[in-house]
Amino acid sequence: MSTPRTLRQIIRSVPASDGAGVKLRRSLGQTPHLRLDPFLMLDEFSSENPDDYVAGFPAHPHRGFETVTYMLDGHMLHEDHLGNQGHLKSGGAQWMTAGRGIIHSEMPQQESGRMRGFQLWINLPAKEKMKPAGYQDIQAEQIPVVSLAGGARVKVIAGVLESDGTSVEGPIRGVTTAPLFLDVHLPAGTRFEQPVGAGHSAFVYPYEGSLNLGDKTVPRGDAGVLVDGEVIAVTAGDEDTRFIVLAALPLREPVVQYGPFVMNSREEIEQALRDYSDGTFAQAA
Ligand code: CO
User: pLDDT above 70 covers what percent of the chain?
Assistant: First the structure.
């Protein structure tokens, strides 16, 4: 019998605003103490009111980490300084490795309707912070959807789903922190189990319904940090529940963040600011 992970901490999401005034809820990353190595930040955006999202995220830089956008509903256009363009549509994901630098914008392509999804920031190891920027753009139809005997329906974005004798790998490849990223729909009262590597950081985030772990509950819109065991084991509350599962190898390196720059030292942050102001920020090495 493998041991289920236990709930160590609940990180409550708080209302926040980013870009040109997009309303969102931030759980991980609202303060430096509320990171979960290598996860730096988790934002959930969800609104049917265009005033909350239509201004989007005009051009801004990133250096030293990865941004992962997962769209549940809606349509955004992504463009960067290298001329790359990508459409982020319902059910799709974009895994962007900012590396030494990307200047990009993410703008809504709708003026009404629901815009809902997540942006997650994942740190890069020191030796990869200055590598060239890269993308993995994944359309909804490239993400495996697995129906398990216990009732769960799982989208496998990264890593390997291993439940009920099933083994299905997601489309994201080649990430050093070996991330697991699942989107799970669990009918009321049913259980879901997924093994997770020893020592990997892990959390669950219900965006509809709630999750029970033993006598504890992770409510909608909060991140539940899970520790000390080989299996994530959760049961949906008394309504149908949708949640994301994230796990990855911690880096255990110093983190120095200045807005959209995440490096290992203050000197590297100062270098990033100099590179950005003199226009060499995102040029090839
Ligand atoms: Co960005």
Answer: 99
